[in-house]
Amino acid sequence: MPHMQREEGKNLSTPCSILTAALSLFLRSRRDKEASTTTIKQNLQRKEHRHASQESSSIPPDMRSEQLSRNELFFGPEGLESIKNSRILILGLGGVGSHAANMLARAGVGYLRIVDFDQVTLSSLNRHACATLEDVGIPKVECLKRYLRKICGGYCVVDAWSQMYTGDETKDGDMLVAPDGQKWDVIIDAIDDVTTKSKLLSYCAEQDIRVISCMGAGGKSDFTRLHISDLRSASRDPLATKLRQTIRRTLNEKHGQYDKSFLEDVNKLAVLYCSEKTVVKLADLTEEQKNDGVHNFGAVDNMRIRVIPVLGTMPAIMGQSLAGLSLCEIGGKPFSPMSGERLGRNIRHRLFQHFKNREKRISDVLIDSQTKNEINNFWIGPPQIDSDDVEYIVNEVWRNRCCVTGDALGTVLEIARWDLSKPSNCQNLVLLGAKAMAAFDRANEETGDGRMSVSEDIRRKIETRLQSCKTDSRA
Asked: How far apart, in Å, are the Cα atoms of 248 and each of 95, 104, 215, 420?
């Protein structure tokens, strides 16, 4: 070594020697770095291969059972087994979709297909479920797949598609086709573009696939105003308004006419939306965008250029809500979401008083005009509900809609007893608009049974819904 140092010192006596030595050191450093990088890559590849081969057994069965023990206590063994065997497709892995996927995988879902064309950016870290600084620049689907593998091992198959959904089968391929010729248990729509969103929902309508769709999360902050409803009922949400119009136009163009019940049936298409008015507007275009033309910006053609301000908590809560609704349906613990704003105390009181007055009139007519034996065919007694039950009946059971026509806007809704031979509890009360109520009362007068005013099909739907209700809203 001393000899080498003397030699190097002697060689550095001229500018040419200095340049040669510097170049030599640079090349040696570069070769060492490349060799180190190659070794690291090879080690990572071996590790990935070894991990993949052992993935299915990465978590011992007893540990996996303990991992899902709280879910099993909630859903029961059969419900958890349904979740383990479920197949769910999620399109869009931003703030909403990533949180939904995270909770579905943690809950034990057996197969997740996740679709998103975009990469993790610095600005997405304020709302993404699992992305870190190290993930910036990699596809969102890969980021999420790596993360879920650390939690679920091989028990959740994560099928990652780093691709944009377009609605064009020639471009999308089998993206929307469930594995093994099966049917999706649910499709979760977390797309934020109206055009592709409407194409996806139209496809679900045509294929009769259960779909849960998230409306706008940007520009809002009041999570107490989140609601789950049918698309027709979603209010104060610009995305929902545009989506209704676009879906009608899309289905009309393809089929001439379409089944409107898809937009009105929360059991076919459920939408999660926030009824809060947007509190902040889209960010203004920059001077560079104005000067160079907005068409020169954006990662994808025809996508929004102006940025939506997002409070990270909103998409997180909405994604968790989508996962919760999906899991409860698949696991056999469905719930009836409240639709729209809560009823005020005055409205509840008015509806309750109207119902009490109606019941009194029915009792008076029966007592005055019928014999004792005939009265025995009817139930006569005080209302079996109170004003708190009114909100459950209106919001949760009938979702602010006439049970016969489905009308919500432009009609006065009142509560009526469906079957006069049964008590007036929550399982025997319907919500009727003015016209439907008039026909119901007319049938009561003529036949003694208001149910004769509706078709067999509508009657069957109403009675199926009533059977799923609680007798007491506090039960």
From this structure: 28, 31, 17, 40
Angle of helix 95-107 versus helix 140-152 axis, rounded to 10: 20
pLDDT tens, residue by residue, 45-70: 444 444 443 444 478 999 999 999 99
Q: What is the pLDDT of residue 279?
A: 80
Structure tokens at 319: 């994604």
Residue with tokens 């064009």: 168
Q: State in Å, rounded, how far the first CA of the chain is from the last one.
A: 87
In DSSP terms, 339 is beta-bridged to: none
Closest CA to 344 of 412, 276, 282, 390: 390
Separation CA 296–CA 171 (nearest Å): 24
**Block residue for tokens 């719930």:** 335
d(CA 58, CA 151): 10
Q: Which residues of 170-187 are buried (b: 16+ CB within 10 A; e: fewer)?
A: eebeebbebeeeeebbbb
SS3 assignment, position 70:
helix
CA distance 199 to 197: 5
Q: Which amino acid is located at 263 in the chain?
A: L
- Cα–Cα distance, 195 to 96 (Å, whole number): 18
Amino acid occupying residue 93: L
SS3 273: strand
Query: 430 forms bridges with which residues in the sheet?
Result: 416
Return d(Cα 174, Cα 103) in angstroms, integer: 25
CA dist 399 to 231, 332, 390, 392, 470, Å? 12, 21, 12, 9, 15
| pLDDT number for residue 312 | 93
Do the beta carbons of residue 160 and residue 131 sit within 8 Å? no
Cβ neighbour number for residue 32 with a 10 Å cutoff: 10
Q: What is the pLDDT of residues 169-224, one digit of tens each?
A: 999 999 999 998 899 999 999 998 899 999 999 999 989 999 999 998 988 999 99
The CA distance from 361 to 364, in Å, is 5
Least trusted range by pLDDT, from 11-20, 184-193, 420-429, 447-456: 11-20
Tens digits of per-residue pLDDT, 365-411? 877 665 444 456 788 888 999 888 998 899 888 888 899 998 875 67
